[in-house]
Specification:
By secondary structure, the protein is of the alpha/beta class. It has 2 domains: 221 residues, Glycogen Phosphorylase B (Rossmann fold, 3-Layer(aba) Sandwich); 153 residues, Rossmann fold, CATH 3.40.50. The chain is built from 15 helices and 15 strands. Helix 8 crosses helix 13.
Length: 394
């Protein structure tokens, strides 16, 4: 096998990250390195400081070669990148890495705080993965004012009323950078449609993957439903909590993650006598037993989700999904390996009761979840398709 040199760009990279897109970059990078390829990742510590507002975690040892962007301006520099669409420090780092490594291709991921200028650096073929709506939405999530699904596309008003500066550079400058791309990856059919309709960008649908899970033991965990992700309204957690109470289910509801709705989870824990459990942020090793033993993983997102890794982790463990009809979520329950419920308390409560009361249905969905993972979401399938796609660009 011919060894390839690949340069990745990602605003965040573990352990300096907040969301699933950075985890995907790590999974992809590590799988490529495991197969003998050389991978470099340019990421921003300034951006992490801006978003985390806390102490940096300790750096991890890895065979992936990382190139952090860090400037004297710190988080202020990352904030300026959001305003201007440019990050000169990131461009300098990437230009230096590309010049020294001479990669076979450059693969861009979430570059929201690296600036669109990184897209056309270097002569190597360029690939982009649309992990979110960054190409079409300054908020990245298509949620107007952070409260409801965007239908107006009034980005300036939304930005101002959300307390964010308008991004006036989202015109010719961004368009020219996008034109420099040689190819694009959409993790879902939904996202491929967005790229085509709103950007005119053709893409290849390549469903996300997660590594094969370790052997887990969750026999001592009581029957429960599971929520794993950021504890924010756009993830539908507030609605899920209300629906759980309405369902009068005997099973518990376990919530893993951190975010602004943490106090709300604690309040529901008190109201339900501890049946709602706030587990806080869990490492993957600690989270797997919780997900593996769950009646279902609930992802009732109010936003237009793309392809959340938490759902794919659940499929890899044979845990069925309960999802909203938004974005790419319904694609994940094909098989079927889960249920799609409308975003109202009655529909979600009814779905929770079905998972608890209908053991035969739950067993069938669980079997299909494992099959869906093997058929669509394994590392082997992803890497083979990825190398074929990237190889066609070179």
């Amino acid at each position: 096998m011919e060894t390839k040199k690949i340069v990745m760009t990602s605003t965040f990279y573990p352990p300096f990250h907040l969301g699933g897109d950075a985890v995907h970059v790590r999974y992809l990078s590590e799988e490529l390195v495991r197969r003998g390829h050389e991978v470099h990742v340019v990421h921003s510590l300034d951006a992490y400081d801006l978003k985390s507002r806390g102490k940096r975690p300790r750096a991890e040892r890895t065979d992936v070669i990382t190139h952090p962007v860090e400037t004297p301006m710190g988080s202020a520099g990352a904030a300026l990148s959001f305003l201007t669409g440019q990050n000169r420090a990131a461009e300098r780092v990437l230009r230096k890495v590309v010049s020294e490594v001479r990669p076979d291709w450059v693969h861009h991921h979430n570059i929201s705080l690296l600036g669109h200028g990184v897209l056309d650096i270097g002569k190597a073929p360029k690939l982009y993965t649309a992990h979110d709506h960054w190409l079409v939405c300054p908020r990245n999530d298509m949620i107007y004012l952070g409260k409801e699904r965007c239908t107006s596309r009034d980005c300036t008003a939304c930005s101002l009323r959300s307390g964010r500066p308008p991004q006036f550079w989202r015109t010719e400058g961004l368009r020219a950078s996008v034109d420099a791309l040689g190819g694009a990856i959409a993790p879902s059919q939904y996202m491929a449609g967005v790229l085509k309709k709103d950007v005119g960008l053709e893409s290849t649908v390549l469903p996300n993957f997660v590594p094969r899970p370790p052997r887990v033991h969750g026999e001592d965990i009581p029957p429960h439903f599971m929520f794993a992700g950021v504890l924010e309204p756009h993830k539908g957690l507030d609605l899920l909590l209300r629906a759980y109470v309405r369902s009068e289910a005997a099973a518990e509801l376990h919530v893993a993650g951190k975010g602004s709705l943490g106090p709300m989870v604690d309040e529901y824990s008190r109201r339900t006598g501890g049946k709602v459990r706030n587990l806080g942020f869990l490492s993957r090793d600690m989270l797997m037993p919780e997900v593996s033993s769950a009646l279902c993983l609930a992802s009732p997102s109010a936003c237009l989700e793309n392809s959340p890794l938490s759902c794919i982790e659940a499929l890899s463990l044979g845990t069925p999904l309960l999802v909203s009809p938004n974005g790419g979520l319904p694609e994940l329950v094909s098989g079927p390996c889960g249920l799609v419920a409308d975003l109202d308390e009655d529909s979600l409560a009814s779905a929770l009761r079905m998972f608890e009361e209908q053991a035969e249905l739950r067993s069938s969905l669980s079997f299909n979840a494992l099959r869906r993972y093997e058929d669509v979401h394994t590392p082997e399938l992803y890497i083979a398709s990825y190398l074929q796609l990237a190889g066609a660009l070179t």
